[in-house]
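Reopening closed ticket. The problem is back. First fold of the pair:
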Amino acid sequence: MGEFLQKNYSLLIGLLEFIAAVTGLLVYKKFKLTNAKYFIWFLVYINVCEFIATYNSFIQDGKFLNFLKGTIIEKNYWWSTLFWKIGAIVFFAFYYNKILENKKFKKIINISTTGFIIFSVIYILSHWRAFFNTFFPIISVLGAIVIFLCTVFYFIELLNNDKLLIFYKSINFYISVAIFIWWFIITPIVFYDNYSAYKVGVYERDWAYIELRRYIYIFSNIFMYSTFVFALIFCEPEEDMLI
């Protein structure tokens, strides 16, 4: 089982993302008049961006993107940083701005997200060459903080709302739980990725850590995307979310 998970790591994660997006499209009619439709669009966005990210596997000798070999975009770190580590944060800030009612909470999220974007742009420009060869832990951590703000504010509103009595019927509750736990588990890993797992040269690759990292990502993604699929299938659109 463990060997199977290790060998099919990328395939399994891609399959989970695909199942979640297809499920969202199948039930889109149910949520098309609610803010949840944006979340379904986001699931499709993830699949499209992940597909684009596979371009680096076609750069080897004899492949049709071989002409990119030796260029600054030979690796896909830059793309993953843009579409996930920054893009996903911007989406969730937008999404929670839609579903939250407290204006103060919305303002804090807007300010935090704007600050996050400005910092990310400045940091990338000042570390331009590294942008194409590695991930930036600081961007991941700041992005996680924005996610935590969004979800915590949602939980606070839920606790102070009559909706608490039927929270288990809300798709936003499951989305919030899933992304909060996922970012809580994954964020600490970014500190080791650059300095332990993939160092080559002075340090040998820590294969034991790489295997552990893959297990963490696989099971975290299984939890997150399974929660998304469950919520999309079993939750009903909320009347006050109609837009």
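Second fold of the pair, where the issue appears:
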Amino acid sequence: MKKYEIKLNRRDFLKNSSMVGMATIAPGVFFQELAHGRALDEPASAKKRWGMLINTNQCTDECDACVTACNEEHGIEDFGRPTTDTQWIRKLKLTHDTSGETINVPMMCQHCENPPCVDVCPTGASFVRADGIVLVNKHTCIGCRYCMMSCPYKARSFVHENLENQLPHAPRGKGCVESCTLCVHKIDNGENTTACAEACSKDGQQAILFGDLKDPKSEISKQLKKYETKEVRSDLGLNTAVRYRGI
């Protein structure tokens, strides 16, 4: 049998690898190159800032489509710990002290422009991409949990268990902190949506709108201009990428 020597430069290797599987372009984060997405060697652009608008007026108590979709998309399991199980998105029920009126508030990482989790991280594992998505580098996270203590939204979780059957687009690991990634793998594939927004539109109450906050022609920008919206804990000056109606 003849042996053949194949020589590829780095660009050709990455290009060919993307056709058959996943490639790593940043520690702990995996992306797949598609024709309509960014090239593997093209960085995220500051020309965009991804965010969400959540209309609590349309979020009902009995619907959990967003939570279920997020868990399925990222392979998040229930390990039977009642108050500390991992949830990248959770629903809070708030009751007005005077009127007794209740509202449902989906809560996840707010993808702050000035995130406290990044400020306190001793290794730089918590970071903000150019397009505003806050992520955790699983290779450099030492599990100190300073970011969990600093997050005013209690949006981060710590992985206590050994994990099996992980999904290639959502690498996770014992001893690491994690939180909502705004479905970064979908964004980098050019889908420009999230699992929770898709599920809310399809199976829920159409309460979650996702889009580019910097694009004045995007639907989310139009809605933000048309309706009164609020940040949770706007007093902290974090400039969150998740805004709410009806709170």
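Update: turned out to be a display glitch only; the data is intact. The two ends are 71 Å apart (CA to CA). Residues 10-245 form a domain with the Alpha-Beta Plaits fold (CATH 3.30.70.20). Please close again.
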